[in-house]
């Protein structure tokens, strides 16, 4: 019982420290700045961006793809690790679910930012045409939001009941809210069976939906004739890339949350070691698809394709291309092969490297292709031959990233980041096992 | 989608049949009928007449039912903007042998479509396939593909394909996602990144104009896509598209594939014969977009390529307008 109380006390959400308040204010400030920039974009039109008729998509789209990719972490860690019975996932799944939810919500918002006529958003439903990949996105993103939300919520129900009791004296208002969210959870056997079943259904559902989400995201590009996008390899390439981005984001944020919430006892070196191995696996798979996407086509590249590949390998985008390939992929693989490379602090830096690499990787996927159309670029101002985001684009994009972090911060503040009930249950199970062995 | 298509096709056929019957009655045996009518009017006989519909079926009609009407000109009939002008299929032929980059087509297009951006809808590319091959000038406009990639990807049916071959844009519906621009292999679509400012730049009175797919650019709408529309507003008035009439060298031929006729304003030619004689081809045939624009290769050129260099501007396709007071 005493250990249970310790676990509860350790894991219940605590008030922001001073640092927490500064962090949140900082994020809100970034969001407000971005919002101002967005309103300005609404008024003046997208001419405030550096996108033009050739570079017709920019970082709004690559940022959107990044968010979609990161949201894949929910599918990977929660569903796959659950179905394969990897028990080390317990202290990590909640944060993974939170990241997934924040990322997919922001993906939905980011794609609207790219729309030049958000006032006509409803046309997507009124005049929807099924053969357009955008319509598929309109279907899959809300679906994934709902499933992610449920996958976060169902396992939280017993924890909400614990929180309700815990805050009864100290904070009756929050106790009431947690109580409402706990849906009269008593922990009875029928309730437990029902909850277990619901989680299982959602966990199985999120796998095809998650895979479809990444696939549709890839099809958004591969359904066009454009050189560099018109690739049958694109869907698995995007899925494996999402695997990398998601696990990278998880490793980074787990480290930060562990430090801030002082959860070293619950999230140990062992967990980081496991995560490191998972990330290494993800990176290796992604490397495989990268070779398929960029190296093998060299052998049969037609003229246009060759120009595209040369731009990436030695041309104007080579710096960025090699940075994301070596920094975001090959270097992490090498470091993660060593046990020392999978220690918490190193994992944090690798995760950060992978996330930044993943973000720029999407930029490298979107932009160079658009600047190599089939017909030469002629008759437009010189500046249209290149693309680098404008101040508006940066401010708005940074705001979307800040908003994702704010959602995560709020969730981490008000939800138990490590499942309390499950931790207790697992501890009791191991204790019981231990006793059995002794007797 | 398929179902939808069938339905609209049925409707279209239905309409076509009606017009056809009237046309047949009015057009085919007009003199005969009228003489018969005159003869039978007083008697009111129940004499039957045999008539043939446009699709070849013979029908019997009581001759007293037959009345003389004015010859029905299908061009005058009101038609659905999204369906297109019935029984037509518009095509263009561009003779590269005649083009010397005079750019009159471009300025006429810019003028009549009130283009205020920095990217013209009609471009004349300076082309050269390889170092050893001869350079040539290649005007491009919207190819009005029969399998348009842009229409496939549009999520809201803002850009659509008509039965008369035209690919048009409903700027009142476009959501500005620019997916069609990404899909088009011909880079023909341009975007209104900001306020088009036609009232200011062109001193254009927009008070009585509502945007119509049939006259793109009048007015342009912020945050939506524009492109060459094959000038249905000119076709309606039995005129040729602005680029065709503006070209001093007769490069552009416009016409109807069903009639197998194209004209550049000076000469009218059989489309099939022209394509056969001059080895016509379509741009990026291998993509399978099936364009409505044909090109004639730049052989036996009447003009020197170098003459066009004078007018060639690498970074400009829309002349800045001098503001008029």
Automatic annotation (TrEMBL), chain A:
Keyword Cytoplasm: no
Organism superkingdom: Bacteria
Keyword Membrane: yes
A Pfam short name: NrfD
Location relative to the cell: Cell membrane
Matching InterPro entries: NrfD-like (IPR005614)
Membrane topology value: Multi-pass membrane protein
Membrane spanning stretches: 21-39, 59-83, 95-113, 133-154, 201-222, 234-257, 278-299, 319-338, 350-374, 394-415
Family: Belongs to the NrfD family.
Protein name (record): Molybdopterin-containing oxidoreductase family membrane subunit
Organism of derivation: Seonamhaeicola aphaedonensis
Lineage: Bacteria, Pseudomonadati, Bacteroidota, Flavobacteriia, Flavobacteriales
Automatic annotation (TrEMBL), chain B:
InterPro entries: 4Fe4S_Fe-S-bd, 4Fe4S_Fe_S_CS, ET_IronSulfur_Cluster-Binding
Source organism, top-level taxon: Bacteria
Residues covered by the 4Fe-4S ferredoxin-type domain: 133-164, 165-194
Keywords on record: 4Fe-4S, Iron, Iron-sulfur, Metal-binding
Molecular function per GO: 4 iron, 4 sulfur cluster binding; metal ion binding
Signal sequence coordinates: none
Entry-linked Pfam families: Fer4_11
Protein name: Molybdopterin-containing oxidoreductase family iron-sulfur binding subunit
Organism: Seonamhaeicola aphaedonensis
Lineage of producing organism: Bacteria, Pseudomonadati, Bacteroidota, Flavobacteriia, Flavobacteriales
């Amino acid at each position: 019982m005493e250990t249970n109380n310790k676990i509860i006390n350790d894991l219940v959400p605590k008030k922001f420290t001073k640092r927490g308040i500064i962090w949140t204010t900082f994020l809100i400030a970034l969001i407000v700045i971005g919002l101002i920039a967005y309103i300005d974009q609404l008024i003046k039109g997208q001419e405030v961006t550096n996108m033009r008729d050739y570079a017709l998509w920019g970082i709004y789209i690559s940022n959107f793809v990044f968010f979609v990719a990161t949201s894949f972490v929910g599918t990977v860690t929660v569903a796959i690790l659950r179905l394969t019975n990897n028990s080390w996932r317990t202290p990590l799944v909640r944060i993974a679910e939170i990241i997934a939810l924040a990322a997919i919500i922001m993906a939905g918002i980011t794609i609207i930012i790219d729309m030049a006529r958000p006032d006509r958003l409803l046309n997507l439903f009124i005049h929807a045409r099924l053969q357009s990949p955008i319509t598929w996105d309109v279907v899959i993103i809300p679906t994934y939001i709902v499933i992610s939300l449920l996958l976060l919520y169902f396992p939280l129900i017993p924890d909400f009941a614990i929180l309700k009791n815990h805050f009864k004296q100290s904070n009756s208002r929050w106790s009431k809210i947690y109580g409402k969210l706990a849906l009269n959870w008593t922990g009875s056997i029928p309730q437990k069976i029902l909850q277990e079943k619901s989680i299982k259904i959602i966990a199985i559902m999120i796998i095809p939906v998650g895979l479809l989400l990444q696939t549709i995201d890839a099809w958004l590009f591969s359904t066009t004739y454009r050189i560099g996008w018109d690739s049958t390899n694109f869907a698995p390439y995007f899925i494996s890339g999402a695997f990398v981005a998601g696990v990278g984001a998880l490793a980074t944020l787990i480290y930060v949350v562990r430090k801030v919430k002082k959860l070293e006892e619950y999230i140990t070196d062992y967990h980081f070691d496991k995560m490191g191995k998972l990330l290494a696996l993800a990176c290796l798979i992604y490397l495989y698809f990268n070779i398929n996407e960029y190296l093998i086509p060299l052998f049969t590249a037609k003229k246009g394709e060759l120009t595209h590949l040369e731009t990436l390998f030695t041309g104007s985008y080579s710096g960025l291309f090699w940075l994301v390939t070596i920094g975001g992929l090959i270097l992490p693989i090498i470091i993660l092969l060593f046990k020392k490379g999978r220690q918490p602090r190193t994992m944090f830096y690798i995760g950060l490297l992978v996330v930044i690499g993943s973000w720029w990787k999407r930029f490298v996927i979107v932009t160079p292709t658009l600047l190599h159309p089939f017909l030469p670029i002629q008759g437009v101002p010189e500046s249209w031959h290149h693309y680098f985001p404008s101040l508006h684009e940066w401010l708005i994009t940074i705001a979307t990233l800040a908003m994702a972090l704010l959602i995560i911060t709020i969730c981490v503040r008000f939800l138990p980041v490590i499942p309390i009930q499950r931790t207790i249950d697992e501890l009791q199970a191991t204790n019981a096992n231990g006793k059995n062995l002794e007797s | 989608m398929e179902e939808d298509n069938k339905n609209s096709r049925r409707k279209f056929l239905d309409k076509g049949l009606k017009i056809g019957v009237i046309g047949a009655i009015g057009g085919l045996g007009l003199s005969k009928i009228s003489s018969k009518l005159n003869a039978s009017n007083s008697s009111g006989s129940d004499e039957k007449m045999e008539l043939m519909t446009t699709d070849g079926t013979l029908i019997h009609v009581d001759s007293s039912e037959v009345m003389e009407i004015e010859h029905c000109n299908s061009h005058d009939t009101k038609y659905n903007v999204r369906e297109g002008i019935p029984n037509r299929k518009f095509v263009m032929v561009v003779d590269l042998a005649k083009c010397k980059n005079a750019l009159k087509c471009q300025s006429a297009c810019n003028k009549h479509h009130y283009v205020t951006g920095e990217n013209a809808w009609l471009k004349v590319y300076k082309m050269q396939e390889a170092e050893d091959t001869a350079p040539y000038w290649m005007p491009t406009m919207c190819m009005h593909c029969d399998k348009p990639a842009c229409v496939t990807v549009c999520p809201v049916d803002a850009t659509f394909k008509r039965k008369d071959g035209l690919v048009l844009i409903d700027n009142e519906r476009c959501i500005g996602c620019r997916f069609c621009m990404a899909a088009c292999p011909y880079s023909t679509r341009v975007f209104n990144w900001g306020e088009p400012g036609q009232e200011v730049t062109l001193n254009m009175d927009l008070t009585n104009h509502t945007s119509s797919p049939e006259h793109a650019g009048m007015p342009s709408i912020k945050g939506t896509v524009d492109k060459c529309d094959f000038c249905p507003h000119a076709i309606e008035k039995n005129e040729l598209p602005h680029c065709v009439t503006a070209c001093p060298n007769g490069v552009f031929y416009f016409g109807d594939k069903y009639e197998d006729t194209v004209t550049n304003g000076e000469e009218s030619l059989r489309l099939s014969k022209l394509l056969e004689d001059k080895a016509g081809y379509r741009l990026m045939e291998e993509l399978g977009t099936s364009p409505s624009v044909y090109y004639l290769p730049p052989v036996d050129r009447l003009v020197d390529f170098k003459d066009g260099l004078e007018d060639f501007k690498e970074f400009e396709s829309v002349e800045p307008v001098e503001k008029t007071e």
